Amino acid sequence: MEIGPRQAALRLFLLRLEVRSQISASEREAVLSLSGQPQKVVAHHDFVRLGDELEDACLVVDGLVARFAQLEDGSRQIVSLHVPGDMVDLYSLMLPRAPSPLQALTNVTIIKVPHRILRELAFEHRGLSSAFWRDCVVDGAIVAQWLVNVGRRNARGRIAHLLCEMAVRYAQIGALANGSFPLAITQDQLGEALGLTSVHVNRSIKTLREEGLIQMIRGSATILDWAGLTSVAEFDPGYLHLPFAPERHGMANVRQVR
Amino acid sequence: MEIGPRQAALRLFLLRLEVRSQISASEREAVLSLSGQPQKVVAHHDFVRLGDELEDACLVVDGLVARFAQLEDGSRQIVSLHVPGDMVDLYSLMLPRAPSPLQALTNVTIIKVPHRILRELAFEHRGLSSAFWRDCVVDGAIVAQWLVNVGRRNARGRIAHLLCEMAVRYAQIGALANGSFPLAITQDQLGEALGLTSVHVNRSIKTLREEGLIQMIRGSATILDWAGLTSVAEFDPGYLHLPFAPERHGMANVRQVR
DNA sequence: CGTATGATTGAGGACTTTCAAGCCAAGTGG
DNA sequence: CCACTTGGCTTGAAAGTCCTCAATCATACG
Fold it and tell me: Which nucleotide's C1' atom has the smallest distance to the CA of B157?
């Protein structure tokens, strides 16, 4: 039997909940039977605006979604990135008035899952209530790591750290192979996430490339030297609360001789 | 009847929960009867270390507490600041293995509230469960704002924004009067919070002072021109989810003529 | 094939850091 | 009561990182 995109996204969502929390069989079923029709959003469209009164949370089915803030001069700071299986604004259950807008960085498919249903689930199932709460907390911990990244590292380190994080997160959804994962993000958007200009992002990527650590072409990132990159980034994946074994993705934990 | 420091801190904690969530009378009583003896921590001491297995959450009774991250070179990034009435690591209910260390920036009094008791409370009282969850989410939203601050604003703007935020938070606990509040933080620590060096913090504070916007002396910050400062900071208090009326604290919303 | 979006590179300037020194207020001990 | 110490604040000069402006290049697409 073929499974649709909705089912696939729900499985990813469930899988991540299970990695971080204890989920019972009935809770598992409840999550997998969540409703909501997939809908498409074109690249660069802000599909949630600041202050919107939300009645649904967005589950990413396909593509890359960003949560961001915008200043008066129009410049943006991306505050989090979301891959398929992420419930982008699960926190909106607690803050239905959107505290940050959401943008589709690429063409995206999302499912709007009604708050009402999520609340019912959390009400009926203690385990899911905790799991949702915990996921919100982990999301916060990731933002905190980004703050450390932007506050303390130089451009090269910031990019390295982001790439490490995204590699682990793409591994979790089975989209990391031979060190490559589909990071469909422009250098402009990377700059918005890292507190840099696209020009400087470009130069720093060049440095990392010349060091033999990474490669980035046409929406795909490849990590050539996991040990080297994590060392540059001072990356410790603990904060993601995901299992990760680099050697299972063609990223032998051996620093190349240069 | 005199109330002890524990009772005072619990009242501040409860007050903030009530501002952000619907709390029933029985829930109110339950919060106020939380146990835990006050204990003192001397300035600069890291009283929670990375990876500690926690069995309590820390409620600040007095002083200023910081959550931070430390890099290999010893440099630190402060990720959040906590004033009296804040349950610093409420999130530890969901992540008992400390994801960030905690430091006393000043001499501090805290109460360690057992997770067990908080869990019982959340289990018995739906409203408290939501309130705790929501508070975790708001804490995350504050960190996200800090990320925007560090990622997008220059030193002057960052300091202005932090001062605005802390003014609102001190107002909430009744510690803002005539634009002054007790921000007992060194310029070194300010730098650690804002991704700057203390030298540059110093120069930027000087600028703000010369512009007639603020004054900072001996552990006390004074906002001389609220409108001017919020304008420099592009500050919008919404993300704090606290009530705030500047004119009630001797901070008329009128920009001074310079 | 022209157009558009994103990547790349150069040059100059702005903001921030580093290193170093001096200052000031508060606390300590003789 | 006063030298002495200490932690934190202040300032100067030089260097470094990152930004701005601008032009060129590459790739995809209608």
Answer: C15
d(CA B108, CA B185): 13
CB within 7 A of nucleic chain D: A 154-156, 191, 195-197, 199-200, 204, 218; B 43-44, 186-188, 198-199, 202-203, 205-206
Burial class (CB in 10 A: 0-12, 13-18, 19+), A22: exposed
Q: Which residues of B touch A234 (CB under 8 A)?
A: 71-72
User: What CA–CA distance (Å, rounded) separates B216 from A219?
Assistant: 49
- Closest nt by CA–C1' to A44: C5
A80: closest chain B residue by CA: B144
pLDDT of residue A1: 54
Residue B10's nearest CA partner among B85, B69, B64 is: B85
Contact A203, A220 (CB under 8 A): no
Contacts of residue A2, defined as CB under 8 A and 6 or more positions apart, other chains included, come to none
Smallest CA-to-CA distance from A108 within A45, A154, A15, A168 is with: A45
Q: Which residue is nearest to nucleotide D18 (CA to C1')?
A: A200
CA distance B118 to chain A (A): 13
Report which residue type is found at B40.
K
pLDDT digits (tens, 9 = 90+) for B93-124: 999 999 999 999 999 999 999 999 999 999 99
The secondary element (H helix, E strand) that includes residue A139 is helix A126-152
Q: What is the pTM of this model?
A: 0.96
Say how far apart CA A213 and CA A31 lie, in whole Å: 39
Q: In the structure, what pLDDT confidence band is assigned to residue B2 with cuts at 50, 70 and 90?
A: low
